[in-house]
Amino acid sequence: MDFQNRVGSKTGGGGVASASESNVNRRERLRKLALETIDISKDPYFMKNHLGSYECKLCLTLHTNEGSYLAHTQGKKHQTNLARRAARDAQDASNAPTVTGPNQGPLQARRNIIKIGRPGYKVTKVRDPVTRQMGLLFQVQLPQIANDVTPRHRFMSAYEQKIEEPTKTHQYLLIAAEPYETISFKVQSKEIDQSQGKFWTYWDKDSKQFSLQFFFKNPSFENENIAPTN
Question: PANTHER family in the record, alphabetically (predicted)?
Answer without folding.
Answer: SPLICING FACTOR 3A SUBUNIT 2 (PTHR23205:SF0)
